[in-house]
Design a protein that fits this description.
Layout lengths: L1 H15 L4 H8 L3 H13 L4 E4 L5 E4 L12 H7 L2 E2 L1 H6 L3 H14 L5 H10 L1 E2 L15 H9 L1 E7 L8 E13 L2 E8 L2 E6 L3 E10 L8 H13 L5 E8 L3 H7 L4 E3 L9 E8 L15 E5 L1 H19 L7
Parallel strand pairs: 3-4
Antiparallel strand pairs: 1-2, 5-6, 5-9, 6-7, 7-8, 10-12, 10-13, 11-12
Length: 325
Amino acid sequence: MKSDRLLSILLLLQTRGRVPAHELAERLEVSVRTIYRDVEALSASGVPVYAERGRHGGIELLAGFRTDVTGLTADESRALFILAAQGAHAALGLDAALGSALRKVMAALPAPHRPAAEVTSRRVLVDATRWKGGPQKAVDLDVLQDAVFADRRLRLRYRHSDAKEARTYTVDPYGLVSKAGIWYLVADRRAKPRLFRADRVRSATVLDDPVRRRPGIELADLWEVLLRQVEERPGGLDVTVRVRRDRLDLFLRLSAAWLVALPEDDGTSEWVTARLSYGVLGEARQLLMFADRVEVLSPPEVREELAAAAASVTELYQRPAGGQG
């Protein structure tokens, strides 16, 4: 609706200052011509907005102009009160601030929208943590936050998952991301995007040097690139297995990260064939959790790896408890 778009333009200008017309057009998914028509409509309604053309031009509100209008629709009001689980806010030290902010938003909502927003806050909860993911190591995000918000470079001592010793990196942080309950620092190292898992940071120091972010690149842009790199990374080992039907649902849930595609299932066979892709041979050991309900058909080296691992476990439990071997 045009009224929603006009309000969106007003709020964007109020929070961002001068914004190029083409950027507004991209954000609102309309043409630049439409944006200029909307600016004329705002001006005609008494909003002190003006446009400057040229290379460094843009659309801007008159200095000092503010509006207290929220303009929230009923659905927008409800969306604000679909709360994330407390973990993310607690890690950032923002639990109290979140509660205070939501109370203020509730007070500012149009009266007809308040009951629906309140019900939503008690009926919908988003919990991004993994089911039965085990206890997560406490992560101190204070120094990482300081660097992100102060626009300063960071020196990290960081241990990769496949390394015994930590390494030192100087990075340019873009921001922090919480994914499935795990915090990541998104940063450039030598102008290349990198992902650092926060619980593997052994130490962090905020440097005096200003951050060197690439022009026009935002946190969301880098996160999309890094996600694509991780998700499209080719597996090093293709494995074909057959799964007993009575364990198929559990297998699909626990092996989702390695599945190449959903198995073809006629709904009647006792066994169902599936294909997986592992980065390294050792990852295939996760199949041992299914015991005799999953059989590896190929390649031979995976069968040998699982047989050796199973034999080691059998040998261990054939010894007296606490015995030396």
